[in-house]
Amino acid sequence: MSAASIRVNGREEPLAAGSVAELLAGRGIAEGARGVAVALNGALLPRRRWTETGLAPGDSLEIVRPIQGG
Amino acid sequence: MTDRLTIAGRDFDSRLFLGTAGYPNQQVMLDSLAASGTELATVAIRRISLDGYSESLVDVLGDRVALLPNTAGCLTAKEAVLTAQLSREALDTPWIKLEVIGDRELLYPDVEELLRATEELVNDGFVVLPYCNDDPVTCRKLADLGAAAVMPLGAFIGSGMGIRNPHAIETICARSPVPVVLDAGIGTASDAARAMELGCAAVLLNTAVSKARDPVRMAAAMRDAVAAGRGAHGAGRMPVRAFAEPSSPQLGLIGT
């Protein structure tokens, strides 16, 4: 693991974004996107805090959405 | 005559809740939802694909039905609570079909974890609909903790084995202070009708429709079965007798 990497949905990647909002925007997820939610280090990160929340090496981010289910 | 189901202050004309998984394709899913008449469809919460764009289910379903997110696949209260919080954020709904699984092969609920998660989520303002064992004691505990409904299983999830312990389901229905939704095990229309005859307030099913040879037709059959079973329950069935009882009058028989 390099010094500045994070985990996104279980996958290690270099830490390139300054904030959660920036990382999401890089994946085409705008702040107003419907049906997306984020957890940072095992806790829900509400949408309104995406912009102000920075990322640090070792952080673990989960980005989820609804899919088909029973 | 209106015969509405009310859960946590929300009214439903349809007593059939339908899952959205496992259909041959998206159009069949949409047509099945329409044919079923359901007003509440379940969805799962999963990681997005990081490899590229795929169509959002929320956009596909639009405003056709209300969505009931589930915590399927969660093995602990902790995982289920976080999944519920994520689903509330993603879908802007406090409703949650709470599943906490204790055995990956049987998909049987882990009662201890389920009770723990129910308590935590109720205290956090969720409308909790727990998938649970067909056990009157567990159902009572869940209702006492503030579950908006209880959803005992008829049989293993996805098994299509029907209602394996109808007496337990009937007992749960007779005693429950909250609506009872038969969840899991339904294989065909008669199972859904039976659930309603036993006193269930609604039926939740998925595979029986999505894996039918003709899902849209089965969805319509389920709609009719739920309505028929509900009607029969309200009408009150005749007593069962051990011997024959002639339907036609005995008086005036010729040759007597």
Automatic annotation (TrEMBL), chain A:
User: Domain of life of the organism in this record?
Assistant: Bacteria
Under InterPro entries, the record lists:
Beta-grasp_dom_sf (IPR012675), Mopterin_synth/thiamin_S_b (IPR016155), Thi_S (IPR010035), ThiS/MoaD-like (IPR003749)
Q: CDD domains recorded for this chain?
A: Ubl_ThiS
Matches recorded under PANTHER family: SULFUR CARRIER PROTEIN THIS
Q: In its UniProt entry, what is this protein called?
A: Sulfur carrier protein ThiS
Q: Which organism is it from?
A: Azospirillum doebereinerae
Organism lineage reads as: Bacteria, Pseudomonadati, Pseudomonadota, Alphaproteobacteria, Rhodospirillales
TrEMBL record, chain B:
Instruction: Write down the EC number.
Output: 2.8.1.10
The family database entries (Gene3D superfamilies) matched by this protein are listed as: Aldolase class I (3.20.20.70)
Task: Answer yes or no on keyword Cytoplasm.
Answer: yes
Q: Where in the cell is it found?
A: Cytoplasm
Q: Which UniProt keywords apply?
A: Cytoplasm, Schiff base, Thiamine biosynthesis, Transferase
List the GO biological process terms: thiamine diphosphate biosynthetic process
Q: The Thiazole synthase ThiG domain covers which part of the protein? A: 6-249
One Pfam annotation, family name?
ThiG
The record, for HAMAP family, names: ThiG (MF_00443)
Instruction: Provide the protein name.
Output: Thiazole synthase
Species annotation: Azospirillum doebereinerae
Lineage, broadest ranks:
Bacteria, Pseudomonadati, Pseudomonadota, Alphaproteobacteria, Rhodospirillales
